[in-house]
Amino acid sequence: MSLPQMKPDINISDKEPTSLVIPPGIYPDLRSPDTILKDLQDKEFRVAREYHLEDIWLNINEEKLIPDNYNDEGTFVAPELDIKSNPVSNDYKLLPEKVGVKDTSIVPTTDVISCHSYPEHPLIQEYFQQDDILEENVGWNKVACPEIALTLAVSNDYICITGPGMSVHYGILGENSLVWQKLSYKANELKMSPSADLVWKLDFGVASALTDEIMGLIGCKWELAARCVESVSLGQSVAWYVSGGKVYLQKGLNKTKPFTDSIPISCPIQVTKISCMEMMVLVLTLEHSIMWRCGITDKCEEGTHWRSINIPSSIQGEDITLGPKNTAWILDKSNRLYFSHNYTHDYSEWWQVKISNYTFENTSLCQLGSNSFSIWITNKASQFIFMNSSIIKGDRWSFAPITGTNKSTRWRQITAEGVFEDNGSLWLLSTTAELYHTMPDSYVLKSVVLPCHGEDVVILAAAPHTLWILTQLGHIYIRQGVGKTSPDGTKWRQLNLEQISTEVTFRHISCGSDVIWACDTKGDVYMVVGSPYEIATDIFSPAWVAVEGKPQSDTVFDKVFVSSETHMVWALDNKNNIYVREGIFPDFQLGTGWVVVSGVQALTLSVSGSAVWALSLDGSVFCRHGISQNNYIGNYWVQIFGSLSTLSASVSDDIWGVCDGALVSYSNKTINLKETLTGESDGNYKKMIDGWEIV
């Protein structure tokens, strides 16, 4: 079967050979040649990864795809230093400034994704903002390299990378720029001590030590230090390495004696990776567990014994390193990066760090490096590496240690909107329609009998000192008597809905501190002014007021959410679009209209005292940052690690969620690498987001 002949869209005239007619819809590519080349390389890598050909793709640059002296940011690199034909002069210390050009392409990785394409609609405004989703973590910078970095090594003064062709480049660490120099020798991998007095290179398992170091990494005489080396880490006067799954140590090393006899260090499990820093040694085992060496001192550099490090069972380490501020780092097999500040404790905490979605698309190709003040990560899919020398931020979700119910109990709904710090009540509805109460600092559950026999509870809506529940039939019940002496309350009362019951059936309700918002089955929104706690004791039916304004065309409102701060009212339509109510003032709580907030589509929202938390269609968690009374829309969405089925935020931004039916709580950790003290956020989102930068 022959393919039909296609007529070309470009008409070429024989009489006028220069006359070309470009068909409609074809536009010139105005990107720079470097950008086009980079895009082509990225696409090639994705194809290679799809067919499991990453190794072949990475080795292709034996045939140089780009010149040695040019990188994809247009930065030229100094020519290769040949110390044999160019003897080093007395002013060799000035050499890096004499040759090479400063690389000013160290940029924050705070890339922003924008998403908005909604039709105009009467009574609807849309908030168009270029900075809709802020994905990457603060503090991380993307550093351009002269070629793809297959391995990296970092000392306090130098960074060194090796390329696919065993080429070696190094740079002197400075404030905001690097000068890359190409060395005359080749290596699969290079390792340095913190001062760079010790320099080892690995060539297919053979470790050689640089014995004629002229300056930093420059030299040409190498001597055999060890064989069959799988991993090595150099301290100031020691070399720890792995050979055949066993651990060995060379000690008493210095610049004039960079290697010596090896001492075997007994280890109960086969080891694949090793990292040392100061008086600490970590090993990664064949079983993906991690151990640290106890008893290391100046007089006993080999230490005394090994102890296991407690890590979550979900973490299967692929690479490890010791980092600044006495941190330990793990890069696992599932594209996740973790750090711990208390890894030697029996109950160590591990915090997940996000840098870039693209960085870790193929984690098996990544490698960690560090020195006393920064952490570095290769990205072997491009000519960039990532570094952080300022602020480290990590997140974690922890399973709540619940007692008072069967361990097999699974949760369907939770509400924490009535919690402020350690005060208030956390309410949980099980998948078997049983209601429980607990205090946020105890997790001791107490069963509470529901008042709606035969009716399914569809919404739990909490406020300080009360709980409202909405049933499938549109009935509302309020928990009374909630206080310090009886935090689970004393009795139920059905809310009188005579004012609207003949015309309206509510499908969603939300309680603020002095207002209640609701959405009915037709998509209309209502509001009533009054304390949810006091309304529970009122004799008369509350006065529900219809709220003006409709969502965008072909949609209806489905849910509405209010904060303890009256000016924060948000909503969802039946197509999961997010809206915020504008024009709310203390003397006009009804507001004036709805504004579409783009960037995220959500299944549910939870509005705390200062932020909006959204659960996206795939279970991802986002937080809207920058909300205030003068900025009711906020600035951008920040994605938080985790995949949940529901979530709820307290007034003070403590977050709970349900993951695989289990109750989990959110917390975060911040470490300032430039200060002597560390700071911990303990779930306070305001502290966590300080320092985010938009570029």
TrEMBL record:
<dbReference type="GO" id="GO:0005737">
    <property type="term" value="C:cytoplasm"/>
</dbReference>
<dbReference type="Pfam" id="PF19193">
    <property type="entry name" value="Tectonin"/>
</dbReference>
<dbReference type="InterPro" id="IPR006624">
    <property type="entry name" value="Beta-propeller_rpt_TECPR"/>
</dbReference>
<dbReference type="GO" id="GO:0032527">
    <property type="term" value="P:protein exit from endoplasmic reticulum"/>
</dbReference>
<dbReference type="Pfam" id="PF06462">
    <property type="entry name" value="Hyd_WA"/>
</dbReference>
<protein>
    <recommendedName>
        <fullName>Tectonin beta-propeller repeat-containing protein</fullName>
    </recommendedName>
</protein>
